[in-house]
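Researcher: Re-running this chain for the archive, since the previous output was lost when a drive failed. Same request as before.
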Amino acid sequence: MKDLSTLAGRAGLSLIFILSGIAKLGAGYVATQGYMEAMGVPGTLLPAVIAIEIVGGVAILLGGFTRWAAMGLAVFSIASALLFHFQLGDQSEFINFMKNIAIAGGFLVLVSQGSGTISIDGWLASRRAKGGAL
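Model: Regenerated structure tokens:
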């Protein structure tokens, strides 16, 4: 049960980032760049944002370099909350702010607990434990 719930949790946490990054590659690119600039964030950072979302999301989904990816996405989620949703008087923005904080909390659990056995990290750990070559 623990292994399957960890896998399901990783999938849930990762998909929002993977899908968001992919959406920004298409029709959402210009709109996202404009939104970033309107919020005081240079639009030239958008390719890095897309890379963080897709690469970090895939790493979490597959369970590879999980602790590092989770720490990076936790920081990313908190930074996004502060930069784009820190309008706590607006109920919609408050919900988005808290959503980002909750996602960061989920990533911090992954930092602490790791990816579980159904993951690339788990497979590598089992190979090391058996004395096998990587």
